Model the fold of this input.
Amino acid sequence: MGSNRRDFIKKAAVGAVGIAFTNSLNAMPASSYSRIIGSNDRINLAIQGLGRRLGGFITPIVSKESNVRLAYLCDVKKSQREKAFDIFSKKINHKPALENDIRKVLEDKSVDAVFMATPDHWHTPGACMAMEAGKHVYLEKPCSHNPHENELVVAFQEKYNKKVQMGNQQRSSVESTQIIKDIHNGIIGKAYKAIAFYTNGRGEVPIATKAPVPEGLDWELFQGPAPRKDYMHDTWDYNWHWYGWDYGTAEMGNNATHELDIARWALDVKYPEYVEVLAGKFQYPEDGWTMYDTMEATYRFAGGKTIQWDGNSRNAYDKYGRGRGTIIYGSKGSVIIDRGGYTLYDLKGKVIRDSKSLNQESGIALGGGGDLTTRHARNFFEAIRGKATLNSPIEQGAISQMLTHYANIAYRTGKSFEIDENNGRIYDRDAMKLWRRTYEPGWEPKL
Done:
């Protein structure tokens, strides 16, 4: 797992950045270090991945109430590390160590937990390595790159008994929690259908062409668990989402995760019995985008319940009057839920109750952040301390994530298929060929 700890804890690459801890402190268990700093429940934290989700993590980390010490900033891109260090240096009175390789960070026994916000292909392997090293994990969505990794990340959590919070932060919304409890208690009668939706106005992306690796990018580590290939222009930054399946999970894993989770939660269902998809690339047909940019997916569940997904990545027309959200239909009324709160209607479409959320979580803006992420992160911290229950434990997050994988597999195979509602397995041989991916040798997590 890398060299001796003394070899990798060193001065950061920015100016005269000092290390956060001495070697003797690094050798101590977290509990001993906590006693030294006079707080027996302080959490020593590392962040892996310092890109567009970083903004959402700043407040929960630097807030005194969180009682967290940021120990490491880790990213495979030098400029990302430097930028993150500059941000935090203005908000905390110590200097987190900068590191390129998360494996070196995980060797440090004083680190209690990791925020994991890398590209999708790193999520499950990184989380599994962290759990194996004794760390708790805040795992950004998607929690897995494929169905096999869904099984892996849950199995690792069960084996190592670590707190793993999936980063679908709307699970920490007071308003969403309350109205879904009301739905379960019959406020709209029998809930039978949900429409989850998302729109964005993403533009053209360049056609990927072979190019020199950008300065300061460790391309080998960026690829990590993925099979090795040449660097292609404009791949490392956000556009890796749209260039094939090696790194990303398309818009389903990128954004549908959130709304489908709310839909599944509200309908109180687990795995569907049947999935069908209509999807394609319809905007900017000559650009470098290789995935669908428009998708309609239908999931049929036992008991006559249905979830529909309506996603448009590059057509920003808000057919539902807002950029994202979930509509729940019941026998006695309906509810529309989003990150701003909810509105409850009777069968005639009259507003019965309206909740304007106090949260300021971003809707479709890149990077998100805001109060929901803060609340979600603090829930993670308190769960580590044994003072709270996780709002989105990985065993629940993984079930919702499967809905996105089913849709991607249906799109890639061009087939609808039936599913075992008990274990989530697909009754189709072609579809099951995409249950897992190929790993770079030595990178596949193994129990």
